[in-house]
Each structure stands twice: as structure tokens, then as C-alpha cells.
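SEQUENCE AND FOLD
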Amino acid sequence: MGPTHAPRVKICCIGTAEEAALAITCGASALGLVSAMPSGPGVIGEDRIAEIAATIPPPIGSFLLTSEQNVEVIIRQQRRCRTNCIQLCDCLTAGSHRDLRTALPGISIVQVVHVTGHESVDEAVALADSVDAILLDSGNPALAVKELGGTGRRHDWSLSLRIREQVDVPIFLAGGLNADNVGEAIQAVAPFGLDLCSSVRTAGNLDRNKLIRFFEAVHGAETRLPYPSRYASGR
């Protein structure tokens, strides 16, 4: 068993530099900046993503959420937005994760796996050696209008646990997390990180009181993580 460690928290759908600063003040380790998506909340223009990313201090992860599936397009997008992480919300159809890593040295690559069934376990295991982390979400890319995140739905955490047990990269858990269920989520999955958006907002705006309540719930549910020490201490 690894050392006691409260999961890192990524606050997604950041829309302004002020929201970024608030999330960091409350304890966020990473922030999500959402570019064009087929559906879901929090989309902002790339110019604003670049402006916000420039205000985020280096120890904090700045995640560009992209629905693009062509590596060359993603490379150009990241160079415009200048985040230190790329969150791939869909599968790549042109180019590879290795191509991304070669073109963007020093930029972390996080692949989303939408946990829709047992096949998601095999998908995550196959991807693990190619990325820096996997984010488990509750979307459905198979729909006519793809859901690539921001659904507010909880998926089957027993599948998330199976994935976490079978891969050797950090796992972020997303999908329907809030202050009332995050303790259960931490105990059930023992993820490296947590990802959320709507449950810490009021009328679409980041809510300081909801953020504080969520972080209190996270720290109240610290668990022993079975990761190698390099993950428990940060990577």
C-alpha cells in the first residue's frame, strides 16, 4: 500500500482568469479549459484559453480539452493555447500519441476514456503505455451528437477500479462528482485525481462556498493509494 494521499483535484470549465485564481486558492491542482466540443458546458474561444493559461502558475496543470482527432490539428491548437497539458476527449484517428509527444516535448498527454461498459477496461489498458494519465469520464462518443464530457452523470465505479488496478499511469475520475459522493468515490476507486465542473457552480459561475465544501469532503476522505511512490508524490 502506498502513502496516505488526498487525490489531486482538477476544476474544469474555467471561463475567466478570476475563476482560475479562485479555484487555485481553494486548492485545485489543475484547471480545465474547454475548446470547441460537439456538446457540453464550458466551451470558450482559443484566444481566451491562451489568456487564462498565461495567468496559471507553473505548478498548476493547465489542461486544454480538445475534441479534435487529428494530431496535426491538435499540435497547432496547443501551440495557440499554450497549456502545459492536453486532454484528448475523443480517440485519435490521424496520427498517434507518440507523434504528439515528439512534436510537443514537455506537454503532458491525458487521454479520456468514457466508461460505457467492460470494453472500456480493455481500451484503457491498451492506451496506458502511450499517455501520461487517463481520465475516466461518463460521456458517450457513439451518439449522433457526441458526449465527450460534462454530462454530470456517474458511471460504474467498479469498472473504474478495475482500470486503476490494471494500469500503471495516474487515473483521474470524472462524472457526477460532488461533495456528497466524493468520499464514496475515493474509497471505491482510489484515484490519483478527481475532475469536476457543474457541482461547484451556481448559475454557471464558480462558487467559492461549494468549492470549499468539496475540498473539505476530499480531505476528509483521504485513503491509502496503492500506487508506486512516484505517483503518490506527484509526477
The CA atoms of residues 7 and 192 lie 5 Å apart. The chain has one domain: 4-216. The two ends are 18 Å apart (CA to CA).
